[in-house]
Amino acid sequence: MSYKRILLKLSGESLMGDKQFGIDNNRIATYAREIKEVVESGVEVAIVIGGGNIFRGIQAVEGGMERTQGDYMGMLATVINSMALQAALEAIDVETRLQTAIEMKEIAEPFIKRKAVRHLEKGRVVIFGAGTGNPFFTTDTAASLRAIEIEADVILKGTRVDGIYTADPEKDANATKYATITFEEVYQKGLTVMDMTAFTLCNENKLPIIVFDMNTPGNLKKVIEKNSKIGTLVQF
């Protein structure tokens, strides 16, 4: 049995592929094909993408820019990524709607919960851009917020590692992977799954999270199956 409605969270960096900056067309086309496969299986799919491949608000602060201005620039970067993914999906005949937290009526709908849910019910992929529309909040928080609002069954956080480990597996060869872990254990062990605001939102609203490797072909299709062995499930 698979989840009925999911929210997929992708980092902006994941869209770079092997590039140092920007969007890798092959990577985004691959993601689009994976998403199409899930949609065709009957699962309702919403997506939030970060903007770190183009601009990070925190970089602006380090360069002396005021934080609010930098964060708004980061939100616009997420819209560019969202438009790119929308184009890739529509190129393979996946009906898609882009909704943004900052109104940009020439290119996207404003975020309206009821409209988003109606699109999902009609089998359209809904991409949420511009974060929460507020500075000082990450796209992880935007993903948690939107997932709760649309009553998603789970957040799927696509990363370049295949789950949550006892330590950073890229730095510690002895790090071991958790198949499942509770929210309380994540707090106690000081593990980083999402930023704390996003993670606490999920905990308080009983929304499970699965962290998995999005770059392994077929993983997205596998991870939507309940009790899948792909990734790490954060549960209660």
Give me the secondary-structure topology:
Blueprint: E1 5-10, H1 25-40, E2 44-49, H2 57-62, H3 67-91, E3 96-100, E4 109-110, H4 113-121, E5 125-129, H5 139-149, E6 154-159, E7 164-165, E8 177-178, E9 180-182, H6 183-189, H7 196-204, E10 209-213, H8 219-223, E11 232-235
Parallel strand pairs: 1-2, 1-6, 2-5, 3-4, 3-5, 6-10, 9-11
Antiparallel strand pairs: 7-8, 10-11
Helix pairs in contact: 1-3, 5-7
Properties at a glance:
alpha/beta; Carbamate kinase; nine-stranded mixed β-sheet; two-stranded antiparallel sheet; 8 helices; 11 strands; 37% helix; globular
Describe this protein's structure.
The chain has eight helices and eleven strands. By secondary structure, the chain is an alpha/beta fold. It has a single domain (5-160, 211-225), classed as Carbamate kinase. The strands form two sheets. A nine-stranded mixed beta sheet has the order 4-3-5-2-1-6-10-11-9, sandwiched between helices. Strands 7-8 form a two-stranded antiparallel sheet. Helix 1 (25-40) packs across helix 3 and helix 5 runs parallel beside helix 7 (196-204).
Q: Summary?
A:
With 236 residues, the protein is an alpha/beta fold. It has a single domain (5-160, 211-225), classed as Acetylglutamate kinase-like (Carbamate kinase), CATH 3.40.1160.
Helix percentage range: 25-40%
**Alpha-beta content class:** alpha/beta
What's the total number of strands? 11
Main beta sheet strand tally, sense and closure: 9 strands, mixed
In CATH terms, the superfamily is: Acetylglutamate kinase-like
What's the SSE pattern?
Answer: EHEHHEEHEHEEEEHHEHE
Q: Which fold name fills CATH's third level, the topology?
A: Carbamate kinase
Q: How much β-strand is present in the residues?
A: 15-25%
